[in-house]
Amino acid sequence: MSAQILDGKAIAADLREHIKRRVDELRAAGQRPPGLIVVLVGDDAASQVYVRNKQKACEHVGFHSELLRLPAATSQDELLALIDDLNLREDVDGILVQLPLPRHIDEDAVTERILPTKDVDGFHPYNIGRLVLRRPILRPCTPKGVMTMLTQTGIDLVGKDAVIIGQSNIVGRPMFLELLMARCTVTVCHSKTRDLADKLRGADIIVAAVGVPRFVKAEWVKPGAIVIDVGINRLDDGSLCGDVDTAAVTAVASWITPVPGGVGPMTVATLLENTLLAAELHAASDD
Ligand code: NAD
Fold this sequence. Notes:
Helices cover 43% and strands 15% of the residues.
């Protein structure tokens, strides 16, 4: 068996076109375009790449977007004051503060300061709580993007055994909630999990979000499983690889996401989807 490629780049391009058409309709109806503000504190190299991709994607679909660059020495109070201003701006539908933040700034305090209706990252406790209760509005982008990809396989997810490796607040935990909402039976593994390989061998769906290059081995994958590789790891030679041993696992799985070109583009496209949703909800609440 050779797995089919779950082409995140192509699925994300379709999603962006759909969003662009909706923005064109809004403009034609005399409404302002959705507005996203990205805040970057300091000069983390990977973050610079991520925010540039987000900016480009916003421009492509016709959003109003601004990148606010702040020095690494920015105090927490200054950052919170900026968020307060952005919360009040009527032309701003989404606020994204790029993580990680410099160590002297409490990320939780920043996440919680963003108005839940402008929290297009979906990290605010209000939005996570809504996902827990199966009444989501703004959902964390990476897990939601993975669900969009899984839908593309056409496979019925109901009752499937899913195993997630990783329990972070931005990937593993919301991924658990998404798959549970889709009525999978979900196991979440982490660094203290015993017999990880045994748990993976029973999985119909594997989501790897570990941050360790080529961590998932072909011997751990059930023939025909769907394998979603969230990992983005930069190797010494400058190339990127995921958390799955893609070459070997491709021979066993039924579907697999490539890295790059898999989950990464879906995360950015889902951010646009969230910003459009936030804008539509803001417009509806103004009526
Ligand atoms: P994290 O470091 O916060 O979490 C890693 C998780 O892996 C932890 O829960 C840890 O317990 C678990 N883990 C570590 N070693 C393990 C082991 N030996 N066995 C089982 N579990 C183990 O990372 P994160 O922020 O969730 O990101 C994970 C990966 O996904 C990274 O490579 C990151 O760059 C990538 N990422 C990609 C996207 C995207 O859009 N594609 C978005 C976010 C993160």
